[in-house]
Structures are given as structure tokens and as C-alpha cells.
Amino acid sequence: MYVRPFGYTRPASPLEACEHLRRDDGAKVLAGGQSLLPLVNLGLSTPSLLVDIQSLGDLHGLHLEGEQLVIGASTTHRMLERDAQVRRVAPLLAASVREVGNLRVRNRGTIGGSVAHADPAAELPMCLIVLEARYLVDNGARVRSVPAADFATGFLTTRLAPDELLTRIEVPAAGPDWGWGFQEVARRAGDFALVAAAAIARCEGTLVADLRIGLAGVAPRPVRCPTLEAAARGRSPEALPELAPLVDPDIAPSDDSFTPAHYRAHLARVLAIRAAQDAARRSLDVRAA
Amino acid sequence: MTDATSRITVNGRELECRAAAHLSLLRWLRDHVGALEVKYGCGEGVCGACAVLIDGQAVNSCLVLAAQIDGRAVTTSAGLGSPSGGLGRLQQAFLDRGAAQCGFCTGGMLVTAAEFAGAGEALDRRSIRDALHGNLCRCTGYQAIVDAVDDVLRDQGSSSPPAGGWT
Ligand SMILES: Cc1cc2nc3c(=O)[nH]c(=O)nc-3n(C[C@H](O)[C@H](O)[C@H](O)COP(=O)(O)OP(=O)(O)OC[C@H]3O[C@@H](n4cnc5c(N)ncnc54)[C@H](O)[C@@H]3O)c2cc1C
Ligand code: FES
Ligand code: FES
């Protein structure tokens, strides 16, 4: 609770925020503070200046823009959880966000913060690669768009330059005949997932026509499972379990003090299939309705 | 800036907070305002002992800087009393149900429950447990806490029995 002192500033524009980040090597963006401030309190991060982006109004809130859901980086987990549009056009996000931390963490923690922090077990960055979202990144002079799948480069590291802000997240709305599935195993309620899996699927007739699967907690960054996705096409949902070993080429779990890598790999196989089956069944339900 | 001045309302009183920029809301409340009902447990957002409401939403005061909440209203568990100065409904229910033992978690439990009681959400016992899962209690075994919150939600008509009845 006694931390190394740092400065604090509330910039009036993204440009001003980026100038602070450029001028001061030790400056860090502060969003909801639910990942950064625990690190600061533990002495694991010792910034010289926190640049609080909560004052940047354009980064708040979410809305539909044509066929996509646009989420400002400063939108909180709680807003995503409670928004009726999100439940309709991105039900996978609405369901998975409920598993993030506890109520207090979701009340302050932001979607942009979760993506920029890039915890390999975080739910939303994984779901966003399944939904093939894009991230807009701004350095005050130039805005670029990065596909979610290319954003995280490893454990807590991303393609963000030190002077760049993540400003918005663009999520293509899933078509009406897509179903979703989300599965997670954590040691205790509110903990980060040991492994989480997300899937979306579209069926034609009784068979899977399209399937996308993502996993978190089994590699230094969230992964898709292209081998399994390809093999699932043309199969019935009941025939998916035999494909479980096909997640193996796309994961690289490691041991930690509580969880051996082989257990994470086991969870990955089981949860990927369960999420895929849930997604396929929901797609069939929509078609039946 | 290394010092920050903000105006923060605490339990209805508007205060000026002149403090080092790195001061957490938790430390400001305890060391400067004397709000000792707000407890320091972990400093990592895990235990919930430091929970307060900011504009009605439960937050970890250990993970918010006082400088960040200029112009906002903070409510601690001591601010949940009835307008006439007696105990508020949640406070009374905790007392009636024996939902506090050592009391360390109680303030955080009360304000977290106050957020969803205030929102008038319909919650069954399972959802109450779910909403409180980020608040750790080492004494009570949680049963009496869930009972107390359940009493209040039922009284205000926003709690309804789950399909299988009350557990
Ligand atoms: C007890 C606890 C449990 C948790 N459990 C989970 C969980 O189960 N699943 C999960 O996914 N997360 C969990 N979290 C983390 C939580 O989701 C965080 O809120 C989130 O990861 C970070 O969001 P933030 O807005 O708080 O970011 P901050 O903590 O403010 O920032 C995090 C990092 O991102 C950078 N950053 C933030 N916003 C931007 C931006 N717009 N542009 C550039 N850089 C930026 C910051 O500089 C910092 O490095 C938990 C946290 C706690 C305290
Ligand atoms: S002290 Fe803030 S959550 Fe534990
Ligand atoms: S009453 Fe002692 S921790 Fe809850």
C-alpha cells in the first residue's frame, strides 16, 4: 500500500496523452487501473507518470455502426455486460465478460485495458480473436488498424508502441445463424481462468459449415485452433469430440506452481470441444426456430 | 503533477482532497478522512475489504487513486444508514442475521450488496452468492451474509425464489 511516488496527469486529447508518453520513458497509460495498480501496489511496476485516459470522452461507450459493434477502449467490462445490443449482436462477449474477476473489477476495468495488458488467460482478448475484431491504435498523428489476432505478441506484450493509445475495438456482428459457446475452468470464482475456450459456429442442415475456436491460458497469448476448425467442417456436432487432439498443434501450455502443463492441455481439448458443440447447437436452434 | 487537488464527496460531505498524486483512495479515506470502516486486506483487488461505492458502483478503493475521482461521490459502509440517522436496511439485516463476526469484511460486503440492492435487480440466492464472490470472509462461512442480503432484497420485492425453491 506504500508505493513509490509517481506523477499523474489527465490529458485533454489523445495527442496530448501521446506527447506525455513520448516525453517520459517511465510514463504509462492509466485506464481502469485494475491490472496496472495491483502491479504498482506490489512494486512490480514503478512508473514515473500515470497518464489517465478516462478524461478522453471519445474513448467511452459503445454503439452499432453498420454491421459492426464499435467499443471505445475506455468502455468498462460492466457496460459490456449490461448492454442489450451486445447481448444481441455479440452474445459471446456478453457471456464471457461475466467471468472476468469480480464485480468491482468489472465496474472499473476497461476493455481497452484488458486488450493492452494482454494477459494470456484473459477472456475478452481471446473472444475478440474468435470474432475477428480489429483494434484502432492512435499515436496522436496517425491511426492504424491492427487485426486482433496479430495484436498480442507474447506474455503481456503487444504491438502497441510506447507512445500509442488503443482507442477503439471494432467487432463484426455475427450473422443471425451463428451460434456461440464459452467454457472456462478457474480454481476459484473470480480467478483468472486456468483455461478458457470460446467458439462461434454456423451450421447448414445438421452439419457444421463454419467453426472458429479460441483458447486462453495455454500459450503466451490467446490462440485460434485452425487445424481443429478445418477438420470440423461437414461434421455433425456429436462427431466433434474425436477431433479434440487437434488442438495440440496450436497450444504450448507451461507448468506453474499449481497446474502442470499436461492438465492445461487436457482442459484445452475438453473445453474447446464443449465450446464448439455449444456453438453448433445454438446455431441449429436458431435455424430450427 | 505530483500533488493533486480534488473535490470528493464522502458520505454526503464534500471534502477537498489535497494529496500526493500516488495516494490511493483507500489510504486517503483511512489516513486523511478517518474512514476506518474501509479496510486494507490485499491491495490487489481480490479481497473486497476496501470496497466503497463511487457514484453507486462498488469499486476497489485500493485500486483507485484519490486524484482520479475529482467531483465524484464516495459512499462507505458508514454512509448506508437510514436518513433519520439509525441503521440502514442492509446494516440492520446484517445485525439481525449475525452476519458479522470479526467485522473485517463487513463494510465491503455491505457496499457491494448496496450496489445491487440499489439497482433493484431480481436476484435469487445463487445470484447473490455470485455477486458477492469477490468479497472474502474468513469468519462467517457466508451463509448468514447471504441470508441478510436475501432478507433485504425480498423485503423490497426484488428477490424471487428460483425454480427449485430456496436452498
Ligand atoms: C482481482 C482481479 C481479478 C481479475 N480477474 C480477471 C479475469 O478473470 N479475467 C480478465 O480478463 N481480467 C481479470 N482482471 C484484470 C481486469 O480485467 C483488468 O481490468 C484489465 O485487464 C485491465 O483493464 P484496466 O482498464 O483496469 O487497465 P489498467 O490497469 O489501467 O491498464 C492495464 C495496462 O494496459 C495499458 N493500457 C490501458 N488502456 C490502454 C489504452 N487504451 N491504450 C494503451 N495502453 C493501455 C496500461 O498502460 C497498463 O499497462 C482481474 C483483475 C483483478 C484486480
Ligand atoms: S484491499 Fe482492496 S481488494 Fe483487498
Ligand atoms: S466477519 Fe470476519 S472476515 Fe467476515
Plain-language structure description:
Chain A has 289 residues and is α+β, with helices and mostly antiparallel strands. Chain A has 11 helices and 14 strands. A 5-stranded antiparallel sheet of chain A has the order 4-5-10-6-7. In chain A, α5 runs antiparallel to α8 (123-130). The longest helix of chain A is centred in the C-terminal third of the chain and has 28 residues, at 261-288. The radius of gyration of chain A is 19 Å and the shape is globular. The mean pLDDT of chain A is 96. Chain B is α+β, with helices and mostly antiparallel strands. Chain B has 2 domains: 3-77, Ubiquitin-like (UB roll); 80-158, [2Fe-2S]-binding domain (DNA polymerase, domain 1, Orthogonal Bundle), CATH 1.10.150.120. Helices cover 31% and strands 16% of the residues of chain B. Chain B has 5 helices and 5 strands. Chain B has helices spanning 25-33, 89-97, 106-118, 125-131, 143-155, and strands at 3-10, 13-20, 51-54, 57-60, 73-75. In chain B, strands 2-1-5-3-4 form a 5-stranded mixed sheet, covered by helices on one side. In chain B, a hairpin with a 2-residue loop joins β1 (3-10) and β2. Chain A binds chain B through residues 1, 3-9, 30, 33-34, 37-38, 41-42, 50, 52, 54, 78, 101-105, 107-108, 189-190, and chain B through 1-2, 4, 20-22, 24, 26-27, 40, 43-46, 48, 51, 57-60, 62-65, 67-68, 112, 115, 130-131, 133-135. Flavin-adenine dinucleotide sits between chains A (28-36, 38, 53, 73, 100-101, 105, 109-110, 112-114, 116-117, 119, 122-124, 160, 165-166, 192) and B (44-46).
